Amino acid sequence: MRRRTLLIALASVVAVLALAAGAWSLGSVSGPVSGPEAGRGMAVKSPAPAPVPKAEDMPPMTLTGDTRYVALGDSFAAGMGAGDEHGGCVRSAESSYPAVFAADTGVRLLHNAACSGATTDDLVNKQLWALNGDVDLVSVSIGGNDLGVAALATACEHGPTTECKNDFNKAVDTIGVLTDRLSATYQAIAEAAPNARIVVTGYPLLFELPATNNPEFATTAAVNTATAALDADAESAVTRQQERGVKIWYVPVSFTNHGVGSAKPWVNRKGLAAYHPTAAGYREYARAFEAALAGRH
């Protein structure tokens, strides 16, 4: 039910953005309005939600110096925004969440093959070289560039502009096909590392939402809801692969009380790393990853 609920929330944000921007045409998502805009005459009819299978809980995993670990993904796995990045992939050797996790647990980080800007296609075509039958653990952070979450946040930084509207439309269109892309990507990873446990890390909501009468509410809600839909697609794709017998699990990451707009944000606001985690944000990623593997949900 979670994915359908988030698509319904998207419909609410679409309605808010439509009012804010002057009746945008975003007809590709529909559903009854829920949340803070409910009861304001913006309801849209939709079919009854279909049940979504619940993902299996992750059993604890013993982590030792012999655990062979590989990280895959995009800028959120590369560590963009951590402060010590370098190279064409803008990768942090010390402050990315894979590096922090490896340092905290003592596992052997064989490769961090993640690259800033990577899409699902890039991962399949350029990162699977790091995997083989000897790998025990794989982390994956991918999908954000397919959906364009950081680009959407940047485009909507100054309100419901035409660029913001266009990027939001692209995100809505991508949501419809993203589960298939992610599922195919996870399957390719499983085939390249047949003996590994695969852990998919989600994306945190970037903003602390202001009051609904705040001029920034519509655009910040749009970015958060698009991110939540991306996470729901990832979780649905994980469930598909679990049903095929793949050892794969989804781990959510929360920046609650530390998003943009909070007193102590874990999100960069300026420069090339805008709307990516800070070093503190990546430490939270590592903490959530380690806690999930230890069975502390």
Mind explaining what this structure looks like?
The chain has 297 residues and is of the alpha/beta class. The protein has a single domain, classed as Rossmann fold (3-Layer(aba) Sandwich), CATH 3.40.50. It has a 5-stranded parallel β-sheet with strand order 4-1-5-6-7, sandwiched between helices. Helix 3 crosses helix 9 and helix 4 runs parallel beside helix 7. The protein starts with a helix and ends with a helix. The N terminus is likely disordered.
SS-based class: alpha/beta
Mean pLDDT: 85
What fraction of residues sit in β-strands? 5-15%
Helix content: 40-55%
CATH architecture: 3-Layer(aba) Sandwich
Which sequence of strands runs across the widest sheet? 4-1-5-6-7
Shape: globular
N-to-C SSE string, H for helix and E for strand: HEHEEHEHEHHHEHEH
Query: CATH H level: which superfamily?
Result: SGNH hydrolase
Question: What name does the CATH topology carry?
Answer: Rossmann fold
Question: What's the main sheet like?
Answer: 5 strands, parallel
CATH class: Alpha Beta
Radius of gyration: 19 Å
Distance between the termini: 20 Å
Count of domains: 1
Number of helices: 9
Enumerate the spans where pLDDT stays under 50 for 5 or more consecutive residues.
Answer: 1-5, 11-53
Work out the number of β strands. 7
